[in-house]
Amino acid sequence: MPDTSNPLQVQPDSEQERPTGASRWRLRLTRCGLVGLSLALALLAGEVIVRLATCGRMGQRYGHFIVESVAPEDAADSLADPLIGPGLTVAGDGRGYRLRRSLRSRFVSIEYDTRLTTNEQGLRSPPLRRDPTFRILCLGDSFCMGMGVDDDRSYSAVLQSLVRHEGWDDVEVVNAGVLGYNPGPMYAFFENEGLALAPRIVVLEFWVGDDVYCAPGSAIPRLRSQVTVRDRIQAAAFKSHLLLLTMERLRGIRPVRRWLLDAGVLSRYPSDMLLREGEADRHKDKIDALGRLLVRFKQLCDSRQIQLLLVLMPVREQVSTEFWEATVAYNLRPGPPPKPDLLGPNRTMKQLTEAAGIEMLDLLPVIAAANRVEACYFPKWDVHFNERGHQVVAQELFRRLEERLRKDSEAGRRQGKTPDGRPAGAPGP
Question: Hey, how many other C-beta atoms are within 10 angstroms of the C-beta on 196?
Fold first, then answer.
């Protein structure tokens, strides 16, 4: 029995009530809220510290658009991809998507910060000229578009500068490259829009990395209006420098990276498998489909008296053994490393172009030689050419096309015509 003579002694069930079930739940929720708030503040503090420590340079490994403005007709919706989606919109002509028109943007990654703009047609070129011109149309994927370099540093822009330096002011080079395009969308653009530009030469760019052993076809895009809550959370996470730094550190731990790669959280570089022995035999149906598409390309060009030149871009693992070894080491594939056949895709493309009667420029020897003098690729994660690589490509294209341009220019001057065959001084289209 309690001592009732002591007034300071707590009396059960009289002076103090026992906590009820509701009050216990409130207490637990309060504690959970405090823990969550503390965690959020700690993450926020970590984010601020990382941004200050890296001066904002801890960006995405892969390029992404930061859009400033677009044409009103393309402002309604963009694609759902949190990285490249803001710069793209749907195309209903078999391409799947295209660059947005009158796009003003930055294209940024951890390795570059570039200006990327488009004209009224959605092409990464200056406004198309209205006066008589001899047009060179460059078709291709992100290499042609110039991913990772400024507008005036893509190989098509450098080729334009080289042509003008020779005094051929009537020659216009048009950049119609779009990141992610494979031969299917390239053909769809050429058939539906490219022919209307009346090019005299078409430079068709293929990349060994995903244009040789792929099924030509358009991607099915998803719009921003169709994104889910999970997509929005993922897009927000992509902007966290703290998360990016954490992922970079985890990639450096081999067991953790192997688990993340096997789980699909990280992606393996495909080049080591594309360049292994016997890979062409594994993609026979896709190669046959590509061969048929190249025949259609050639027939369409011949019907308009257009010269077609296919340019084959190498993957960096073909150019340097250092890149090959780094890719194999990063991928951590199960089993023994693949036995390389570094020229397999190039032999395949040579056979296909010869069968279709298409002239091909294989840039592997040129890029390999230039890369030994000065790097032509970005040094870390991005697989594209840097400014030096685009310059080398433009110079080689100029050497290949110079004779044709010189002949047409001299013939035009003798006949009093511009390079596209119109009388000199005649009004443009």
Answer: 8
